[in-house]
Every structure is written in C-alpha cells, then in structure tokens.
Amino acid sequence: MSGTFPASPAPARVELRSLQPALVSLGHSLRRQSRTLNAQRWALRLVFAPMTQAQFAPIYAFAIAQRGQYDTFSYQLLSRVWPLRGAGGGSPTVNNQAGSPEELQTGSRNVVTAGWPTSTNVLLAGDLVQYAGHTKIYMVTATVTSGGGGAATITQEPALVAGPTHGAALTIGPNVVFNCALAADLQSAEITPRGGSLALYRYEVELVEAY
Fold first, then answer.
1. Domain 93-175 indexed as CATH 2.40.30.290
2. Segment among 60-64, 155-159, 163-167 with least mean pLDDT
C-alpha cells in the first residue's frame, strides 16, 4: 500500500465498472448453459478536465510511484459521484454470532447486521458497503429495512470473499475506500502547449480493485 490517490483536482468524469466473469456455452441445440465463477472486481476510470502543470504533476507523480501495476493504494469516491440512497444512520455492525443460524461463511450473499435506526429503509439497491477488516467492496441489491430492534439483513453482490467477524463495523455509501492498483503499466498524458510557458495537460487513468 503506497498512500491515497490525490483528491484534488477531482476528476471531471468517473466510470464505475463491475467485472463478474461467467462461463457460458451453447450446445448444438442452442440450449444455453452458464456457470458463475463467483468472482467480481470493481474498476474505476477517472477522466480529468484539462489541468495546469501544477494540478497535473502531483497526480502523475503518484501514478508513476506505483511502478506500473505493482503497488496498491486507496481511492475514495466523491459523495456527489455515488451518494448514499438509504437513510443510513446508527452504528451498524455485523451480527454473525458463532454457532448461530446467522453465522457467516465465505460465499454468502446475505449478511445479518445490527445497530441501525429502527424500522427504517437504511440501505437501498445500489448502495455500497464495506466490512471492517476487509478491503472488498460490495453493492446492496435490494432494499434493507431494519426491524424494531435495529437488526437488518443485507442482500449483496458479490458473495462474501471472506466472512466478516462478529461485531465488525460497517462503512456505507461514499465513505467506503477502494483498495486499488493501476490497470496498466503504461501511463500517458496529452500535453497541449499554449502561449508563453503555459500548457494544458489531459489525463485519464483506470484503477482496478485489489483485495
């Protein structure tokens, strides 16, 4: 891990991508067969508006310091890029007590939680969630409504890559932090000289989730 991707200037455009590979085949009868690999990875494409050298140089230097795809770093979406849709609130934690029916194992798409405000739509489809001690980020796929005691079950994609511990805190919405690497070893910028010593720098970069 080599730090946090520079927050300023913010990208003019962000593409959020999800890769979930599946094996699909067609027989001679054209009957379709499919099988999931139960794998998923996020990717972020950041496109910056034309920048001055003072704005561009720290971003480019950070990218060069990653030594291509070698190192990893953190990146956090701006709240206006992917705001929380649900009400959130409370101090939610994982409630997977060992030996109980709610005990979580790798591969589960349902996570039992507690500590939410009561009787509230705390999360909505499309909200992002992250569990303490894990770098993987998940997306909520259905409305999450808390009960009278503040408990709620999250339905998510992908399936858990590792079961979170009982009592682990949840991070939700734009507060989640992506653990990333550069998607390519080659990093290039377009430089447009202007009058005097000024120039404009155009840059875009793709980040891939690394967990």
1. yes
2. 163-167
